[in-house]
Design a protein that fits this description.
- With 290 residues, this protein is of the alpha/beta class.
- It contains nine helices and twelve strands.
- Strands 8-7-6-9-10-12-11 form a seven-stranded mixed β-sheet, with helices on both faces.
- Helix 6 crosses helix 7.
- The radius of gyration is 18 Å and the shape is globular.
- It binds trans-N-(3-aminopropyl)cyclohexane-1,4-diamine.
Length: 290
């Protein structure tokens, strides 16, 4: 509606509507995969929406990008090779670049238009593409990961949109199986895992698939005010090999002095890392593996 982005009538959150006041539309387009909208909001800075669903806002993107990158990378001693599936805005790349042990970052994003739009309107996120360790692949994630040699990566981060558009395949069993094959023993996967308030059925399905496919599986969450229900979850998995203790970050990133050129962390720290795995009683019952 005019002057307001309202995302409702979406099977992902039936009967709910979430809206942000649109102060000024900055870009509106349609790629071969989805509608792309960028607008200036009243309180959250610029906003990127795909098919009318908020993907990120300048004000709270830090919570999502920092957590999805540092929950896995701070859990293994010295990540060297990392793969990002999705993440075309570049925010996760910006966070991975904080880890000096990382030598090589592959990113596979299906929609080039998302990258081009974010380079124009979200320089604080697309700065991630400027890191010399990054290699960009415009491709379908399933196809890309299927062609990946076995044991290639220390960490894989699946920064996907909701599983009702181009990202639908990213919650199905075959996808997790080829991810497990592409990780080295003791390698880690972190993917976006929706909301414990809205999607416990979908999360349960993903958890049971991951428990058959990986050695360790945990669910963590963070507050992101502009996502439906104000929280977003993360699935943390590790392949069999050196055991990974996700709950006690052995490779802390928040102790590093901030290199002046890099922006400081705005959300993630080691305490939030540990707290992220603490679940409310209802979620423990519905999502626990124990
Ligand atoms: N890097 C952009 C974040 C994409 N993450 C998703 C956006 C849409 C939400 N409903 C779920 C998370």
């Amino acid at each position: 509606t005019d002057g307001e982005l309202v995302y409702f009538n979406n099977p992902m959150w039936p009967g709910e509507a979430h809206s942000l006041k649109v102060e000024k539309i900055l870009y509106q387009g349609k790629s071969e995969f989805q509608e792309i909208l960028v607008f200036e909001s009243s309180m959250y800075g610029k906003v990127l929406a795909l098919d009318g669903i908020v993907q990120l806002t300048e004000r709270d993107e830090c919570a999502y990008q920092e957590m999805i990158a540092h929950l896995p990378l701070c859990s293994i001693p010295s990540p060297k090779t990392v793969l990002v599936l999705g993440g075309g805005d570049g925010g996760v790349l910006r966070e991975i670049a904080r880890h000096s042990s990382v030598e090589h970052i592959d990113i596979c994003e299906i929609d080039k238009m998302v990258i081009d739009v974010c380079k124009k309107f979200f320089p604080d996120l697309s700065v991630g593409f400027e890191d010399p360790r990054v290699r960009l692949h415009i491709d379908d994630a399933v196809k890309f990961i299927r062609d990946t040699p076995e044991g290639m990566y220390d960490a894989i981060i699946v920064d996907s949109s909701d599983p009702i558009g181009p990202a639908r395949e990213l919650v199905e069993k075959p996808f997790f199986e080829i991810i497990a094959r592409a990780l080295r023993p003791g390698g880690v996967l972190c993917n976006q895992a929706e909301s414990m308030w809205l999607h416990t059925h979908l999360i349960q399905e993903m958890l049971s698939i991951c428990r058959e496919t990986f050695d360790t599986v945990h669910y963590a969450w963070a507050s992101v005010p502009t996502y439906p229900s104000g929280v977003i979850g993360f699935l943390l998995c590790s392949t069999n090999g050196p055991p990974v203790d996700f709950l006690n970050p052995i490779n802390p990133i928040d102790k590093q002095e901030v290199v002046k050129s890099k922006r400081e962390l705005k959300f993630y720290n080691s305490e939030i890392h540990k707290a992220a795995f603490a679940l409310p009683a209802f979620a423990k019952r519905e999502l626990s593996s124990f």
